[in-house]
Amino acid sequence: MYEFLPPIFKQLSPRDLEVAMQRLQALDVEQGVTIIEEGEQDPSLVVVMRGEVDVHTGDTKLGKVGAGDLLGEMALFSRGLRTATATTRSQCKLLLLDRSNYEWLRQVQHPLAYHLEGHALDLLSDRLRGVGDRISALAEGTDVEHVTPSAGFFGRVASAFGSGGLMFPGAIDGAKVLGGTPLFEDVEPQVLEEVASHFFPVAARRGHFLCTEGETGNDMFVIASGIVDVIVATQGDKVEQVAALERGEAFGMCALVQPAQPRMASCVVREKMTGLSMGKITWAEQANRYDKVGSALRVAMIRSLGDQLAYANAQLMLLDMQQRDRTALLRAGAGVEAYGAHLGDERPSYLQGVD
């Protein structure tokens, strides 16, 4: 029965595997049955034990999965919104893990929950790298280049924002800040307190760059107060704003899971910002823990990167339809950096005249 289980299941001890299998529902499904519907809310994971499944979005076929593969792992950790449709290509034997049983495994600190989280992070990292490569390829030969901005760019930003600088942050209730973001929703209070203890407080004046486009990043940030704008440099030292982030929103996460990749956008303080930060060394230490603290960090990262990837992909689809629309390209790149409320096309008054 276990011959075609994915590798993450085969890493379990016989006892742990037996417990895990009691939490999964076995299904025999005929050919031509839609098991996942794009746009539906369905926070569950499908394990293909036998047979093949086609995956597509609209009329576009994305690929197929077979014995030993997983489907729907992103939906398990976030809002459960399906981003593609899956239809059985042949008669299939499937295993279903729903949200409640995943949460049970997580609560009792079963290793399968942690293996699934690590697997999802690896997949997201690979997909984000692919999106970043595609954005860079599309930018070649256009007026958008993901390089470290020139001195003229920083001069234009300073004229609109100010010279910036770090400040003494004072007391920040880290657990309250983290508890106010969807990334850490439903985390037990005592676990959240320990998670917060691994962040350090930061504060910065208007105009301070917390991330710089083109540079290798070392930190992620969660905003406690203030506003941080996500901007990109365009040809001629112009400034293009593509997102505004406020309390509870985050940015810079890609630096922790893809340490060699350059930033895709700059994050600059518009209104005095206080918040929390975590560096890549601390992330590596804490996110590899097989306990509730490590799980909370992994799931928060999965939720953040999953939303970022979905946004960047949507912008790239728009780009394809509009044949290299410049605004879509800018927004797609920035979407790889920021988790939060992306702006529409209208620019705020404080940036008028900057470009």
Topology summary:
Blueprint: H1 7-10, H2 14-21, E1 25-29, E2 34-36, E3 44-50, E4 53-57, E5 60-65, E6 70-71, H3 73-77, E7 85-88, E8 92-98, H4 99-107, H5 111-139, H6 151-161, H7 174-179, H8 189-197, E9 200-204, E10 209-211, E11 219-234, E12 238-245, E13 250-251, H9 254-257, E14 266-279, H10 280-287, H11 292-322, H12 326-335, E15 338-339
Antiparallel strand pairs: 1-8, 2-7, 3-6, 3-8, 4-5, 4-7, 9-14, 10-14, 11-12, 11-13, 11-14, 13-15
Helix pairs in contact: 4-5, 5-11, 8-11, 11-12
Primary descriptors:
355 residues, alpha+beta, Jelly Rolls, 2 domains, 7-stranded antiparallel sheet, 4-stranded antiparallel sheet, 12 helices, 15 strands, globular
Overview of the molecule:
This protein is α+β, with helices and mostly antiparallel strands and 355 residues long. The protein folds into two domains: 7-108, Jelly Rolls (Sandwich), CATH 2.60.120; 129-351, Jelly Rolls. Helix content is 38%, strand content 25%. The chain has twelve helices and 15 strands. The chain has helices at 7-10, 14-21, 73-77, 99-107, 111-139, 151-161, 174-179, 189-197, 254-257, 280-287, 292-322, 326-335; strands at 25-29, 34-36, 44-50, 53-57, 60-65, 70-71, 85-88, 92-98, 200-204, 209-211, 219-234, 238-245, 250-251, 266-279, 338-339. Strands 9, 10, 11, 12, 13, 14 and 15 form a seven-stranded antiparallel β-sheet that branches. Strands 1-8-3-6 form a four-stranded antiparallel β-sheet. A hairpin with a 2-residue loop joins strand 4 and strand 5. Helix 8 (189-197) crosses helix 11. It starts with 6 loop residues before the first helix and ends in a 16-residue tail after the last strand.
